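Fig. S4 source data, part A: sequence.
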Amino acid sequence: MTPTHMPQFSSGLVWFRRDLRAHDQAALYHALRQCKQVHAVFVFDTDILTGLPRHDRRVEFIHESLQALDAELRALAGHAQAGLIVCHGAGVAEIARLATELRVQAVFTNHDDEPAAIARDLKARGQLADLGMALKTFKDHVIFERDEVLTQSGTSYGVFTPYKRAWLKKAQQDPFYLRSYPVSRHARALAARPASHRQPIPNLKDLGFEATNLSTLHLGAGSPGGRALLEDFEARMQHYGQRRDFPSVRGPSYLSVHLRFGTVSIRELARRAFERSQNGDAGAEVWLSELIWRDFYHQILYHHPRVVERSFKPEYDAIRWAQGKTADAHFQAWCEGRTGYPLVDAAMAQINQTGYMHNRLRMVVASFLTKDLGLHWQRGEAYFAQQLIDFDLAANNGGWQWAASSGCDAQPYFRIFNPISQSEKFDPEGKFIKRYVPQLSALSAKAIHAPWEHPLELQSCGIVLGRDYPAPIVDHAQARAQTLARYAVVKKGN
């Protein structure tokens, strides 16, 4: 017989953040095991929300996911009085207030390695300690975090490939890391909400936000939405390696927003990918590698928080980026999809219209901003942070620094994507371009990648550059030469 587990606390509070699910949720599992009764709370944190636009797809996604989470918690508890308490205010102050009101002994939550989140949790720990309460935190958003995968000398990895080898070795040696937490076994500890906290989740307007076009994007929300996307992807996973780079093809998993807000479990995703890759599924192996990249960027952010403000490779801070009126005009053209390079403009139309951008195109537009326009990667990073529904600081910063060659990458500085050849290779028929730049839809598959090189076809289609579609704002060959000169300062510094 299994020995009876004795709870440590009479009452606890689970603070949900980027982990909006009731299954395989680390903090919830530990709270249910350690407490006789457990309350659940989400705070619409005004410290975060205040700086966001009123039409923000992420806030709407969170709002819809909370409704699903509330339903999950009620179903787990088996009574309608259970569910999610939702507050609106300054995060730490609301948690301290609610914890006091509910007379809990401990608050349970999952790690968040962003510098601002670490500072917030340090503040919360102090305030709760002053009230005689503990703050207990757990790993939930990655497979391996912080110091769990280190080099033989005990330092963090700065290059992906050896990190990946160490990651895979550790996962193979100990299956525990990919196992799910059996939350439902302990769900009886979920408490009824006090009568004063049984009101419905505040609507978007109450929070100061407006509805967006989220419902048209077919991303789903909450655990049910994540589950549906995962099931869809499982049937396609074997082809992931061949299809993932083509934006007009249903190749990716489209789970990035669900990973960002924890409406799916990274352990479940990695376990499925790992098991299939062990059985020879090449697509699963490639996808698993992408999930490992995610872990990699999170450990970089934790060990090197300076990357938020500076280059991972310090020598790249010496680069003199383009500034002034022309640079600002180029940046605006890039943001608005008016560069004159169809694939770049289509990609920017996608992010502006949907809050999503295909991963291959993220690399293309980032390379164009830094290597063709000579603009600082931080300008593009900030724009993505504003627009992306799946914005994640670690991945966004890592991706932008990779494109700028200033990040964790063994490749030399001179990697410069050619926007025309990328277009010809990954959107050969121009299907993606035609969807997002419809004014070019009459052009042939040959002409659509670089319309200015086909004046006769433009004329026959009645398309005038500068009127119907912009002429290129820079010449790629000239820009490449300027970039090599700009980046030469890095070589000199070595």
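Fig. S4 source data, part B ends here. The first helix runs from residue 26 to 34.
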